[in-house]
Write a structure and sequence with these properties.
There is one protein chain. A seven-stranded mixed beta sheet has the order 2-3-4-1-5-7-6, with helices on both faces. The chain has one domain: Rossmann fold (3-Layer(aba) Sandwich), CATH 3.40.50. 38% of the residues lie in helices and 23% in strands. With 188 residues, it is an alpha/beta fold. Helix 2 packs across helix 3.
Length: 188
């Protein structure tokens, strides 16, 4: 069984520790804990292969920038022959409080340009996603600065535990399926 797990983010050091790059951060943590390395010279992004309980997870950090993530997702789905039901997108969400994780099997883009582009390119929004709450502690008109801002000290202290929980969601998605993963993690 093969799965494509895509962490959304923007390439470049200036985005590395920002809230908007939490998808990249989760995949980097999974790779680090598993002693696997991303090949940064792949088409449309950095790619690593993670094996767990007989499953193969293709981990993708698109190099297309957030707003054009759909091209990378489509390419790797086709290249690895991964069906839509085995796609999992990791994305930041300002509508959720910091650290709240919500697993969904489908849905709209909620104003997120990365999801919007994926929906357009794939012609569907019927794919699993993990929404990682980054909160909305910003003044009117400051959303971009907040989303592209770095985690504050309190968030940074709690981030490792929430990233570990997101990694458990990835493993669960591949081993017990979407429904059981939603039941297990959405009420925490």
């Amino acid at each position: 069984m093969k799965y494509l797990v895509v962490g959304l983010g923007n390439i470049g050091d200036e985005y590395k520790n920002t809230r908007h790059n939490v998808g990249f951060t989760i995949l980097d943590a999974l790779a680090g804990a598993s002693n696997i390395v991303f090949d940064v010279n792949k088409r449309y992004g950095a790619v690593a292969e993670y094996k767990f309980k007989g499953r193969t997870f293709i981990l993708l950090k698109p190099s297309t920038y957030m707003n054009l993530s759909g091209n990378a997702v489509r390419y790797w789905m086709q290249k690895e022959k991964i069906p839509l039901e085995n796609l999992l997108i990791l994305v930041d969400d300002i509508a959720l409080p910091f650290g709240k994780l919500r697993v969904r099997g489908k849905g709209g883009d909620a104003g997120h340009n990365g999801l919007k582009n994926i929906n357009q390119v794939l012609g569907s929004s019927n794919y699993a996603r993990v929404r990682f709450g980054i909160g909305n502690e910003f003044n009117q008109g400051q959303q971009i600065d907040y989303v592209l801002g770095e985690w504050d000290n309190e968030e940074q202290s709690k981030l490792p535990e929430r990233i570990d929980a997101a990694i458990e969601i990835i493993k669960s998605f591949g081993t017990v399926g979407l429904e059981r993963t939603m039941n297990q993690f959405n009420n925490k």
